[in-house]
Design goal:
The chain has 339 residues and is α/β, with parallel strands linked by helices. The protein is 48% helix and 17% strand. The protein contains nine helices and eleven strands. Strand 7 (134-136) and strand 8 form a beta hairpin. The longest helix has 74 residues, at 171-244.
Length: 339
């Protein structure tokens, strides 16, 4: 198992490298660092086999960190992984002890193979960079440019050169995905900020709605006794009307009628009486222990006979006959029918 330390100042790049190398069974990411100083401390603690080092970093850059790591921890090998293909960077990195120099547009498989080769002691350089290390003379003698490059001034910035090698899966594509994710995260944060700005308005609306609901509930609670009182008065008034108007199903001497209790007994007594049996214009009703007579009758003597007869019935305490009208016409008709 080859233990690897990833060093890059961009977190997204570190995470992308970690994800890209995880499927390799013989490679294990034991740690990460964001700059050269942190990388040296991690090497001292973790003792990795290979350090994958970025070149441009704040504080201590990749070349400075590589020089100290190769000097103090000779068992740890360093490979530079950067976007810059400058011959200055290439020669400087190899001069301070780096065992490889790879561009970030290299494929994942190429990076993994380079780490394995470097761990075995070989030197790995991305295609197209070897000629940057050599100078060809007219006599055909090849002179190395590594000599004396350690103290050469490194240009402040270089533009990365696109490689013609296009693997299926490259670190640059992972970086592009990371940037797209960062843009999406930025949009989500903007939406979240807008939502947070709208949140006080929503809270205020909810507060107003809550107050309205409480007010309506309070008004409803107050109105319940008033509604109950109105229904109670209406019930009493209805009963009063019913007391003055005799229900048709509870009155009558002849024909179909329905009586119960003392009213039924009074009606039967009227039917048994030989004088009152033919009177069909007076109706009997009952209210508690009182008998109510209503209708019309020829004379007061017959009405008094009804009252007396009703009072003799068990359970009758009172007899009301104020609603019975005395009609002389009814008396004449009654006398005529007797002749």
């Amino acid at each position: 198992m080859i233990n690897i330390l990833l060093v890059d100042d961009q977190k997204m790049v570190r995470e992308a490298l970690k994800v890209a190398l995880e499927p390799e069974q013989d490679l294990e990411i034991v740690g990460t660092a964001s700059n050269g100083i942190a990388a040296i401390k991690q090497v001292e603690q973790l003792q990795p086999d290979v350090v994958v080092m970025n070149m441009e970093m704040p504080g201590l850059d990749g070349a400075g960190a590589t020089e100290q790591i190769t000097k103090n921890f000779p068992q740890t090998k360093v490979v530079i992984l950067t976007s810059y293909d400058s011959d200055e960077y290439v020669t400087k990195s190899l001069a301070v002890g780096a065992k490889g120099y790879l561009l970030k547009d290299s494929g994942t498989k190429d990076i993994a193979e380079a780490i394995r080769s470097i761990n075995k002691g070989y030197t790995q350089i991305s295609p197209g960079l070897l000629e940057k290390l050599l100078v060809y003379t007219d006599s055909g003698v090849v002179i190395s440019k590594l000599k004396g490059t350690i103290h050469r001034k490194t240009p402040s910035s270089y533009q990365p050169k696109q490689s013609s090698f296009k693997p299926q899966r490259t670190i640059s594509s992972l970086q592009l995905i990371s940037r797209q994710q960062q843009e999406e995260i930025g949009k989500l944060r903007n939406n979240l900020d807008n939502s947070q700005q709208e949140l006080p308005k929503i809270k205020q609306s909810l507060s107003n709605m809550t107050r309205s609901i409480w007010f309506m509930g309070l008004m409803w609670l107050i109105s319940i006794p008033l509604i109950t009182l109105c229904f109670f008065k209406l019930y009493n008034k209805t009963n009063a009307i019913q007391a003055s108007v005799i229900p048709s199903e509870r009155i009558g001497l002849n024909g179909e009628f329905s009586l119960s209790g003392i009213a039924e007994r009074v009606a039967k007594e009227f039917e048994k009486d030989p004088i009152l049996t033919d009177i069909s214009t007076v109706y009997v009703a009952q209210e508690d222990d009182a008998i109510i007579l209503t209708g019309k009758i020829p004379n007061t003597d017959l009405l008094r006979r009804m009252e007396n007869l009703a009072m003799e019935v068990t359970g009758v305490a009172k007899v009301y006959s104020s609603q019975v009208a005395i009609e002389q016409r009814a008396q004449k008709e009654l006398l005529g029918s007797q002749n």
